[in-house]
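Notes continue from the previous slide.

Worked example: a multi-chain complex. Inputs as given:
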Amino acid sequence: MPQHDVLIIGAGLAGQRAALAAAEGGASVGIMSKVHPVRSHSNAAQGGINAALNPEDTWESHAFDTVKGSDYLGDQDAIEVMCREAPQQILDLEHLGVTFHRNEEGRLGTRAFGGASAARTYYVADITGQAILHVLYEQLMKHSEVRRYEEWFVTSLMRDENGRISGAVARNIRDGRVELFVAKAVILASGGNGQIYNPTTNALICTGDGIAMAYRAGATLMDMEMVQYHPTTLAGNGLLITEGARGEGAHLYNAKGERFMEKYAPNKMELASRDVVSRAEQTEINEGRGFPDGTVALDITVVPRKRIHEALREIVMVGRDFAGVDITREPIRVKPGNHYTMGGVKTDIDGQTDIPGLYAAGECACVSVHGGNRLGANSLLDTLVFGRRAGAHAAEITAQLPMPKPDRSWVEAEERKIREIVSRERSGRRGAEIKAELGKTMDKYAAVFRDEEGLQTALETVRRLKEEAKTVATDDKGTVFNQDVLAALELGFMLDNAECVVVGALERKESRGAQFRTDYPERNDEEWLKHINLNLSEDGTPEISYSDVTITQWQPEERRY
Amino acid sequence: MPEYTLKIRRFDPESGRAAYWESFQVELPPERSVLDGVLQARDTQDGSLSIRCSCQAAICGSCAVRINGRTGLACNTKIGEAFERAKSFGHDEIVVEPMGNMPVIKDLIVDMDAVHWKKVKRVVPWLLPAGDPPEREYVVPPESMIDVTQTMACIHCGACVGACLSLEVDPEFIGPAALAKAYRFVGDPRDAATEDRLRDLAEDPHGLYDCTHCFACVEVCPKGVAPMDQIMRLRRRATADYGIKDRNNGYGHEKAFVDLIERYGTLHEAQLLPRSYGQGSLIRSQIDPSSLKQLASSLPTVINGLKSGKVSPKAALWHHKLPDQKHVRRIYKEIHSKDERLELNLYIVGESGGETEGAMAEGSQES
Ligand SMILES: Cc1cc2nc3c(=O)[nH]c(=O)nc-3n(C[C@H](O)[C@H](O)[C@H](O)COP(=O)(O)OP(=O)(O)OC[C@H]3O[C@@H](n4cnc5c(N)ncnc54)[C@H](O)[C@@H]3O)c2cc1C
Ligand code: SF4
Ligand code: SF4
Ligand code: FES
């Protein structure tokens, strides 16, 4: 039975960074992922990563942009930590081998990004996330003392009699073996929950597993209603066109050929923050100025062709392979689409949750640095800064602790659960049907514009789907790569996530950041400058409570771009 | 909506049954992907149908399979095009099977660890800088970063590994993806182990010179990594920059090849072997004793060639020159006259400057 000081669940940027930090801190480390680490969704990040590294730039400026971007819901102590540590993160990555773009002097070069007052986004063409993920994985291969458990699916967190996290239970996808992993501390780095929406820019693995497991184990979830819609996704399949495109100078037009951002953000134009641009687009579309397929046009042809090929290479391929458009010659149709989970497991600035022994970092966590709206290129930074801090903190704490006692009953419970699913006779709907209805429902009622009535409909639907999910049967009865049974488990995780998103959105009776309530169109600092916290209650529904937003030096003001 | 038939190679290791074919009917627009088709079959007909996939956007590298005999990502192969290709072979089904050169675990899932990742590990896949890092960033030429980013773009899908012809013959061959990964370090000015890396890969009998230039990897790679080009660049670095004369005689072989073309305009096959292993022709040469074994091992190939009539002794020994040899000579002269070696960076393909006015200018009347 594997035992580690620190067990990390998830091998995206947050998880891998945490693993390296914990190993450096002298801990014995295991890192686990349901896909091979380089398949983690961090590889999809195209645009880049923010840091005030230029001598002319300051961390305060970066922090202020982030606070303003968050619509003042971000916790300013956490934002300060992130922006101060950002430059060192970039330099560390550069030293490890990330092939960051250089300027003519051969030093690190930047590009502009939305919501930022300076060009402070560092990047590798438009494969930034992939390049960093692969370089971190190079380091994991080098540091063979970090044990990697690749293609293991975690099903639940183990607690001891005092309620402290003492490990996790996971199923080896390759042979179906369910195993107990004992650990003094567990770091969740399991990514976001974009799959509860359809369409989404998120990969099929982004099913919010860690968020749901923490919730089930008693941890607090925070800001779950804050779901980012990215302004430039492809209509049919939700694929992302990076904000880097607008950073390089691309324009948005409605079907009448108007550069409509002039109306909504006369100063920042296309580079206003994402919630603002997405709402502008959706307004154009709703008021009949979009194209018939419910889109607007993104014109990248204004960017010099050589620059496109150098800096937006991936987008050229996406346009060609997935939309049949040569973006160097013609505009491409885009619309707002689900993209990022601002909410998640509530943590402090060292990644600690309110359950002893449990940490969270990256997209599954809510520190909160993104508040109501995440700035582009701040998420990779979040994963690295707080991944590192969680890893280092956990290593330090666990050095003094004894190894928890294994408790086989946790394994037996999970085995029973899986056996029960596999043995079901088909009586109700297929899992894929339930997932499809969930995605459509969320995209309809819990998207850019929301209101009481729609959200109520969404809540009823999600609760009905939860019942239906209890009867989902599998065709696959085997143990090797039984993806059917894993999908059934993921469906359960997704439904918990969705319920929390909708409950949070119903509760927040104001408009702030990504949450725009047409029935409460104003921001209301008096009543709602606070986080909404959710905990699993006895009756299986989320129980609501509140916590304060930490304000250090920036008082809330009106947001203009 | 059009209907397609996917003929999928199934294998369930727990059934005790050999691999078999099963056909699934799916319905979706032609511009959707083969992966969408497989997932539709799985979601609506048989949940046990297994394939690795995640991003659906050719970025996670999970879904490489063989479609109508060609290796590629299921998520960036349009189902309509796959069907047209099947039709051009006279089939009405799109054939989907696991990629080659790797053991199959289940259905379309292969064991990447046993082959691909093992090979990646072989090339010491991490940066080996000299001494401690600088306080700020390493200052390096901007082009060098763009250059190695071409190989950083590799998503480790294994398509090239699955399609490589050399690997089929020599499973020990380090292979296209791992060698491309090696170039990522050799081309990186921050790496201090360039010569050791090159020597190591050149001396490995399954290394640099095991590639037969078949182009398969270049053709199948979904990310434009062009592994074969990276292998050729590794060879040029090894020979021209470090003068590494490997014991597999890859260097000699390549040099002989180039010299022969310069002299005859076409490949003089009878001269190739002796020249590769020595300095001159078979009769005059002083053969390097260390390569005698290799030379002897090539004899069966030569004899087979003679027996099957592929080469006749006369044609082989009295090779004819190209009629217009002077053009070939001119190309050589041109290349020799350059001080710097021509390195074709394939990463940046765009034209510079020019069209900066937006295409929307014309499209803006549309309403
Ligand atoms: C298309 C796209 C573009 C983006 N571009 C940018 C950008 O330019 N800049 C930026 O800053 N951010 C960007 N983001 C956001 C950013 O990429 C992500 O927020 C970030 O990478 C999340 O990293 P992570 O480490 O938290 O999680 P992930 O990388 O998603 O990793 C999650 C890990 O958890 C594992 N896991 C999950 N569940 C389980 C389970 N049950 N058992 C075992 N393992 C499990 C997975 O296998 C995976 O290894 C982008 C996001 C998308 C979708
Ligand atoms: S060109 Fe070389 S490496 Fe590429 S597939 Fe052919 S033999 Fe393999
Ligand atoms: S080189 Fe290309 S084909 Fe080969 S593994 Fe990398 S991305 Fe795939
Ligand atoms: S699903 Fe990610 S590469 Fe095809």
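Summary box: Residues B 154-160, 176-177, 180, 220-223, 225, 227 surround iron/sulfur cluster (ligand 3) (CB under 6 Å). Chain B has a mean pLDDT of 83.
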